[in-house]
From TrEMBL:
Coiled coil: none annotated. This is 2-polyprenyl-6-methoxyphenol hydroxylase-like FAD-dependent oxidoreductase. PANTHER family: THIAMINE THIAZOLE SYNTHASE. It comes from the Bacteria. It holds the Pfam family FAD_oxidored.
Length: 440
C-alpha cells in the first residue's frame, strides 16, 4: 500500500464501478468507505438500485483480464461458481450485420454468468480488503464542500434516518447514470458538463429458461445483432445453475413484447431455426422482465475548466453506453485502472488528469457504438461522410468475416475491447477487406 498521507476515501455507490474504484483506492488510502443506498444481499440476488441486472450482462474479454489482475484468481472462482466459458468462436455464434462470424478457434474464452453473481463475487473480494468497508442502507445526499473543496460526503443511514458526514480526502461518485453529480456541482456554482446523447429507443425483454440437457444447442452463446430494416436481435446464453438467459432487444421503438408467446414470435424474426427450436423447447423460469433505455448518454467532464478538488466521477455516471454492445462494466474496469495510475503519480490536478484518461477510454468506444447505431437507418442522427464510409467498410468486413478466420478474430478482439476499432484498418485486415471483397 502507498498511502503517503492519504487517510480516507469515500465511494458513493456500491455497484460495479464503485466496487472497482474502491479496489483501486485501497492501494493508496488508509481507509476506503463504500456507501450504498440499497441493502446489499449476502449472495447473488437482484436489488432495486441495479434494475438492469435481470438482463444479460456480458463480461467482455478485456474485463476478464482486468478483473483477474485486480482480483487474482477471480475468473477461476467464476468457473467454480458455475460460469460458462465458451471458446470464441467455436462454442459461441455471433451474427453481426446479418453475417455469421466464421467458426474458428480464436483462443479467447468468454465469461458468462449472471450479473448478480458477478457483482456479489466482486463485492466479496472488495469487502475482504482489510482497509475497505462497505456500508449499505446508506444514502448519500451529496459531497460536503469546505471553501470550494470537497472534504467528505453527506450521508443518511436509512435505518432511523440519521444524517452523518463522512470526511474524505477524495470522494468518488459512482452512483450511475441517474446519479446527481451534475446538480451537486451546479448548486455549488460549478459549471455542468456538456452532454452528448444518441437516441436509441431500446427495450430489453429477458426470459430465464431451463433446458433439457439433450436439447442443448451446439454453442453456449448465440448472439444475433440488429440489421437495417430489422433493428432488433437477441442473445441466448448458458449461465450458472444450469440456467439459460434469453435477452431480446429492439431499437428505435421496435420493442419486443413481454408476453411469452408473442416474445417467441418476435424472436423468430431473427433466430436461426435450430436456435428457435431449442428456445421453444425450454421451460421458462419466472416471467419475462422488461427494461427501457431511451438514449446513450455521455457527460463531458474532461472539458470542464473548473471542477472541485477532492471529487471525481466514474462509471455510468460519466458515460452510459448503448447496452447492446455490453461495454459498461469493461469501461468501469479500465477507469479503475486509470484511477490507480493517476493516484500513483500524486494528487495534483487529480480530477482533470483522471477525466482526461477516462475520455481516452470512452472516446473510441463511444465512436464505434455511434457508428454501429447509425448503421441502422431507423436511428435518428447525422451521418457525416466519415460515418458513412466507416459503416460501409465495417459492413464489408462483416461479410468477409463469415469465411475469413483472421477477420472474424479481429472482430472478436475489437468487440471484446482487447483492441481499439482502428485494429480493423491495419494493413493485414485492409488487404483482406480488398481481396476478400473482390473474390466474392
Ligand atoms: C439493460 C442493460 C444491459 C447491460 N448490459 C451490459 C453488459 O452486457 N455488459 C456490460 O459491461 N455492461 C452492461 N450494462 C451496463 C452496466 O450495467 C453498467 O455499466 C454497470 O452497472 C456499471 O455501472 P455503475 O456502477 O456506474 O452504475 P450502476 O450499476 O447504475 O450503480 C449505481 C449504484 O449507485 C447506488 N446509488 C445511486 N444513488 C445513490 C445514492 N444517492 N447513495 C448511495 N448509493 C446510491 C445504486 O443503488 C447502485 O448500486 C448494461 C446496462 C443496461 C441498462
Amino acid at each position: 500500500m502507498t498511502t503517503t498521507g492519504r487517510e480516507q476515501a469515500v465511494v458513493l455507490g456500491g455497484s460495479m464501478a464503485g466496487l472497482l474504484a474502491a479496489r483501486a483506492l485501497a492501494d493508496f488510502y488508509e481507509r476506503v468507505i463504500v456507501v450504498e443506498r440499497d441493502e446489499l444481499p449476502a449472495g447473488p440476488v437482484h436489488r432495486k438500485g441495479v434494475p438492469q441486472s435481470r438482463h444479460y450482462h456480458t463480461v467482455l474479454l478485456r474485463a476478464g483480464q482486468v478483473l483477474d489482475s485486480l482480483f487474482p484468481g477471480l475468473v477461476d472462482e467464476f468457473v467454480e461458481a458455475g460460469a460458462s466459458m465458451p471458446n470464441l468462436l467455436l462454442e459461441a455464434r455471433f451474427r453481426l450485420g446479418g453475417y455469421q462470424l466464421a467458426t474458428v478457434d480464436t483462443g479467447s474464452l468468454a465469461i458468462q454468468l449472471s450479473r448478480p453473481l458477478l457483482e456479489s463475487m466482486v463485492r466479496a473480494r472488495v469487502a475482504a480488503l482489510t482497509n475497505v468497508k462497505i456500508v449499505d442502507n446508506c444514502e448519500t445526499t451529496g459531497p460536503h464542500f469546505t471553501d470550494g473543496r470537497v472534504t467528505g460526503a453527506n450521508v443518511v443511514y436509512r435505518a432511523g434516518g440519521r444524517p452523518d458526514l463522512l470526511e474524505a480526502d477524495l470522494v468518488v461518485d459512482a452512483t450511475g447514470r441517474s446519479g446527481r453529480a451534475v446538480a451537486w456541482l451546479t448548486e455549488q456554482g460549478y459549471p455542468a458538463p456538456a452532454e452528448d446523447r444518441i437516441k436509441v429507443g431500446i427495450a430489453y425483454v429477458t426470459q430465464l429458461l431451463r433446458l433439457d440437457p439433450n436439447l442443448r444447442p451446439a454453442q453456449d452463446m448465440i448472439l444475433v445483432g440488429p440489421v437495417p430494416g430489422r433493428p432488433n436481435g437477441f442473445v441466448y446464453a448458458a449461465q450458472e445453475g444450469g440456467r439459460w438467459i434469453l435477452t431480446v432487444v429492439g431499437m428505435a421503438g421496435d420493442h419486443p413484447p413481454a408476453d411469452p408467446e408473442a416474445l417467441l414470435e418476435f424472436v423468430a424474426r431473427s433466430a436461426p431455426p435450430d436456435v428457435l427450436d431449442t428456445i421453444k423447447a425450454a421451460e421458462p423460469i419466472g416471467d419475462p422482465k422488461v427494461h427501457k433505455f431511451p438514449a446513450s448518454l455521455r457527460r463531458r467532464y474532461e472539458h470542464l475548466r473548473r471542477f472541485p478538488e477532492g471529487l471525481i466521477v466514474t462509471g455510468d455516471a460519466i458515460c452510459s453506453f448503448n447496452p447492446i454492445y455490453g461495454q459498461g462494466m469493461t469501461v468501469a474496469c479500465l477507469e479503475a485502472e486509470a484511477l490507480h495510475r493517476c493516484l500513483a503519480t500524486g494528487d495534483t490536478d487529480l480530477a482533470h488528469r483522471f477525466f482526461a484518461e477516462a475520455a481516452t477510454i470512452v472516446d473510441p468506444v463511444w465512436q464505434f457504438n455511434a457508428g454501429g447505431d447509425l448503421a441502422l437507418p431507423e436511428i435518428e442522427g447525422d451521418r457525416p461522410l466519415r460515418t458513412r464510409l466507416t459503416n460501409r467498410y465495417v459492413a464489408r468486413l462483416q461479410r468477409i468475416a463469415q469465411h475469413d478466420p483472421v477477420v472474424a478474430n479481429a472482430f472478436i478482439r475489437v468487440i471484446g475491447l482487447l483492441e481499439p476499432p482502428t485494429a480493423l484498418t491495419r494493413p493485414g485486415i485492409l488487404a483482406r477487406a480488398l481481396l476478400g471483397g473482390r473474390s466474392r
